[in-house]
Amino acid sequence: MTTITPDFSGQTVLTTFEMTPGTAHDLMDALTDAYENFIRHQPGFIAAGLHMNDAQTRIANYSQWRDRQDFLAMLRTPEMRERNRRFSQLCSRFEPVMYEVMATF
Fold first, then answer.
1. What is the distance between the alpha carbons of residues 71 and 90, in angstroms, rounded to a whole number?
2. What residues does 93 pair with on adjacent strands?
3. Buried b vs exposed e over 68-99: b needs ≥16 C-beta within 10 Å?
4. pTM
5. More reliable by pLDDT, 8 or 28
6. What is the pLDDT of residue 21?
7. At 14, which helix (H) or strand (E)?
8. Which pLDDT does position 3 carry in this prediction?
9. Average pLDDT over the chain, rounded to whole?
10. pLDDT tens for each residue of 29-68
11. Among 13, 28, 50, 77, which is least packed by CB within 10 angstroms?
12. Is 94 in contact with 14 (CB distance < 8 Å)?
């Protein structure tokens, strides 16, 4: 389970995906499969969540990692590179961005 606290010392990654309503559920299925069968088993993975907007044009992904290097190592694996190519086919764009937790309420 994701826990958001300002004293979190790991790496937080927010990724947004933009797509048409026609591919939203296909992309959600692909992302769910990636987390269930690959990403969550990678060293340093802590937790993640997937969110879809009502219009089915955006998916937001929140993930937490032990550190930046663990996240980057996962991205560089051949399996994740192949999965990212599939994600690219299902959306117009996606962008993972690394953040630091500054405050929680």
1. 22
2. 18
3. eebbeebeeeeebeebeeebeebbeebeeeee
4. 0.93
5. 28
6. 94
7. strand 11-18
8. 84
9. 96
10. 999 999 999 999 999 999 999 999 999 999 999 999 999 9
11. 77
12. no
What would the two tokens of residue 46 be? 């802590």
3-state secondary structure 30-97: HHHHHHHHCHHHCCCEEEEEEEECCCCCEEEEEEEECCHHHHHHHHHCHHHHHHHHHHHHHCCEEEEE
> Given the DSSP bridges, would you call strands 58-65 and 93-99 parallel, antiparallel or unpaired?
unpaired
For residue 71, give both structure tokens. Answer: 């996240």
Both tokens assigned to 25: 């559920």
Reference 45, options 66, 60, 26, 61; nearest CA is: 66
Q: What integer pLDDT is reported at residue 58 of this predicted model?
A: 98
The CA distance from 59 to 54, in Å, is 10
Report the amino acid identity of residue 41: H
pLDDT at res. 1: 75
Q: For the chain, first and last CA: distance in Å? A: 18
